[in-house]
Amino acid sequence: MTVTSTHTWETVVGLEVHCELATVSKLFCGCPNEFGDEPNTHICPVCLGLPGSLPVLNERAVEYALRVAEALHLRVPARSIFSRKNYFYPDMPKDYQTSQYDEPITIDGWLDVDGVRVGITRAHLEEDTGKSLHVGGGGRIHDADHSLVDYNRAGVPLLEIVSEPDIRSAEQAKRYVDELRATLLAVGVSDVKMEEGSLRIDANVSVRPAGSAEFGTRAEIKNLNSLRSLVHAIEHETQRQSALLDSGARVVQETRHWDEDGGRTLPGRSKEEAHDYRYFPEPDLVPVAPTDEMRARVRASMPELPAARRARLIEAWDIKDDDARVLVDVAGLADYAEQAVAALKAGSAKDVANWVRQDVLGYLNDRGLSPAVLTPEMLADLVGLVADTTISRGQAKDVLAESMAEDKWPSDVVRDRGLAQVTDLAQLTAAVDAVLAVNGAAIEEYRAAPDDKVRKKKRGFLMGEVMRGLEGKGNAQILSDLLDARLA
Amino acid sequence: MSDHSITRAEVEHVARLARLALTDDELDSLTTELGAILEHAAQVSALDTAGVPPTAHPLPLVNVFRVDATRPSLPRDEVLAAAPAAEGGRFRVPRILGEAP
Amino acid sequence: MTDAALSIAADVRAGRRSARDVLEAHLAQIAARESDVHAFNLVTADDARERANEIDAAIARGDNPGPLAGVPIALKDNLCTRGVPTTCSSRILEGWRPPYDATVVQRVRNAGAVAVGKTNLDEFAMGSSTENSAFGPTRNPHDLSRVPGGSSGGSAAAVAAGFASVALGSDTGGSVRQPASLCGVVGVKPTYGAVSRYGLIAFASSLDQVGPFASSVSDAALLLEVIGGHDSCDSTSIAQPAPSLLDDLERGVEGLRIGIVTELTDTDGIQPDVKAAVETAANALTDAGAKTERVSVPSTMYGLSAYYLIAPAEASSNLARYDGVRYGLRIDGADVADMNARTREAGFGREVKRRIMLGTYALSAGYYDAFYGQAQRVRTLIIRDFEHAYEQFDVLLAATSPTVAFELGAKTTDPLTMYLNDICTIPSNLAGHAAMSIPFGTALPVDAPGGTPALPIGVQVLAPAGGEPVMFRVGRSIELAAPISSHLGGSGT
């Protein structure tokens, strides 16, 4: 009988996140830093690595790195240098990547994720590579006949953010990325869109016996194109490694690729020689020594970070953590909501938050933020109309829809359609009395109701009749009180 | 003086790293030549450099930056005209066997 | 006699000579001797005529074309010239036309110079004899059986033979000064960062500098004033304009303290006549009011070893881009890596491959610290020793080349033998300092077969970073004291 060990395996994950910085021009030259244009239309001698070309560092990329340092509590050493990472690959114009190695621009930071501190080893600057298309073989690299290279992306500035192996589950990894993305968005250094490649993730995954302090052998997982892939890949890889170790085999340190279709990681097929990058200091660039003045300027320009903003909104608006997250995570949404709150004449910030979260979000997604149509002020108008009981909440949904469709202020919609609720006591009393007068049987059934459920149903019927008589414009609260008084 | 001779196997490995399809004759002669040069270059080992920082840049310059602004790019046609092979506005290469590191 | 740039420019600006006439005289000289000398990879006669005509038209309009008006200039073929083939004398770049000009090329053109062609060099600037060119060697105009030096042998020969009035080369371990010495012309390696490297096809980035060749110290000063000064395209370029050199040239050497570097003058490998020339020059300077004595700069003895770790290491990385993907030679292969390897094997010559291999090894895992790392620390020691010397001296003197020109093929069997040509010049590159070679007499080679003419000797002046003004003053004084044979400058017989 074979005995298999049954450890409880703990997942250990470190994430390497590459973030494209949203500078106007590339890291070392003046070519535009833009996504999606015709291939090879944003290249010059420098980013194409033509003989004789030389790099010159983009000052905004340095500023952005320093901003991230503030946001992620990273230390900024007195000086940093660039280094060459040497390897041959067709998407690399110089067959070396100008990056940072032993003297990066920032080190030793952290990010709090759901109350747990994840360490960040370093965040450094480097240039991006070009992109290859593989022709033949279904577009996959391994079966291709030949490849085609576009260097538009070559030289785009990247910030590589490396976490400590402090992450303990796939879900936590996802939350880390969520928080990191929100932070990078908030400090305005990147649009962090995984689908456009401005945020890329590699995961280093290993397992160890629960309670152990030593690290197991890790595998690096690449080709994670979405958060879903990240979660599934980590889960799969954890299982794979655990099963290996349980069967007495060993985990090989290697690069693996996430196969979305197959739902598994596969070993990489890189050239047989282990990559010896032969790092040495980049002789064509001089060191970066951030001055006190540079750092002070960055500090002064720092926006409110996501965690702080969420906490403030939760406290000030009495909203839940989930709602605060959505508001803060979606670019521009919290700004929009805060502007609407500032324009309120009646109603609460919590109301605004609910409206934004539920009804407005989808609409804004379709149109893009800062719509000329449903401005924050118009939303405030709508919320005010409900708060001062001009319309009911039920009516408000229709008013919102019409307001967005017709590009009209909610107040104007209400006025033009005569939707204002009836609040006049005499009118409402008359409406209730009119209904009760012809529904004697229902009243009897209500009074004779055997339990709450039936009673509620009967009451609901009567209320419905009253509302119908008022064309839905009766103020629900007042009617409710009147009805209860009559039925008592 | 320490022995810094290089073996043929090492030469082959270095040739792979450097993407040079050296012939057997070249591998043989380079093994000898590189050995001699390294022997000579290893004289540097003789010097006491404890506590001496390396000089990567002879100039004491720091913080050389450019303003983040765009400048005209090269016309694609001119660049691709110099390419050994091009297709669809891109540089064409034979199939790539391994993934990028 | 090489036509002096200063007088050409003055005559052309004054209308005494036309740029076209000046050019045609030089083209005639090329026609007469280029097939023997092979200074050029490409003579750009048509472009030159067009440019000369433009200069003349500008003069006719009353415009000033600049300090180099009508001066014929030759450009080393590792300087990018837009639309004109730039090969680095390598098969891997044969026929490649850069889409841009090097900064120094733009500057000389804007100053009114007329480029006559791209000169031959050791492939990718790696060599000391121009025998490593894929397109055949250049020959020394003084003796066609001998090398002109390298790697900028073509540029040195072009000036020596009167094909151009001045030329640009590049100096990484002596590649301007040593051929200047062997060809009997003036050659300068500026302070690192004094001249833009943008458009200079890189060999060893922390050592390379573009430098002028001329038949006189004043012409070299003129050219350096034009090409030098900050360039925003080069992060390693000094943030200052080029220093003024011509104004103070004749100030003399009264009161200057001059040290003769023993390690670079008295060592065994240095030909006795060469050492004697340095001493004669030193005596002349003493007569002119300077104080000269011997000085030791000990670490310079390790310069060669450090250089042959640092330069190939940087070169191995700089030359990785020649992979057959985007430009230049491509030899097809089964896959891209195979294509890269076959292309580079076919496209690079022996010496280039040797240095790429050496450099790759020196940087590789497990060896970095002992080789590259240690060499960079030795570099610091060399800089410190120089600093120490410059506390007591204003400039230093040394031989430029250990010997006068050697025969073609004489040093090609053993790479180390060739490398030893650079022992006097390398330390200045490692330190990032300025240095220049001034023709000072001639001597017979030690291997002289009968009938060999006497060959030029060069004396080297070394100065600290930014020391060009004082270096040029000393160079001018040496030039004034030089034997008559050195004042023939140019074409030789």
Summarize the structure in words.
The complex is a heterotrimer of chains A (about 500), B (about 100) and C (about 500). Chain A is about 40% helix and about 20% strand. Chain A has about 500 residues and is an alpha+beta fold. An eight-stranded mixed beta sheet of chain A has the order 5-6-9-1-10-11-12-13. Chain A has a three-stranded antiparallel beta sheet with strand order 4-3-14, with no helix packed on it. In chain A, strands 7-8 form a two-stranded antiparallel ribbon. In chain A, α6 (about 320-330) runs parallel beside α8 and α7 (about 335-340) packs across α9 (about 375-385). Chain A is elongated. The N and C termini of chain A lie far apart (about 80 Å). The relative contact order of chain A is 0.09. The mean pLDDT of chain A is about 90. Chain B has a domain at about 10-45: Histone, subunit A (Orthogonal Bundle), CATH 1.10.20. Chain B has helices spanning about 10-15, 25-40, 75-80, and strands at about 65, 85, 90-95. In chain B, a hairpin with a 2-residue loop joins β2 and β3 (about 90-95). The radius of gyration of chain B is 22 Å and the shape is flat. By secondary structure, chain C is α/β, with parallel strands linked by helices. Chain C has one domain (about 5-245, about 255-305, about 370-490): Amidase signature (AS) enzymes, CATH 3.90.1300.10. Chain C has 16 helices and eleven strands. Chain C has helices at about 5-15, 20-35, 45-60, 105-110, 155-160, 175-185, 215-225, 270-285, 305-320, 335-345, 350-365, 370-390, 415-420, 425-430, 470-480, 485; strands at about 40-45, 70-75, 115-120, 165-170, 185-190, 210-215, 255-260, 290-295, 395-400, 435-445, 455-465. Chain C has an eleven-stranded mixed beta sheet, sandwiched between helices. In chain C, β7 (about 255-260), α8 and β8 (about 290-295) form a beta-alpha-beta unit. Chain C is globular, with a radius of gyration of 21 Å. Residues about 490-493 of chain C have low confidence and may be disordered. The interface between B and C is large, with 53 and 71 residues. β2 (about 55-60) of chain A pairs parallel with β1 (about 65) of chain B, so a sheet runs across the interface.
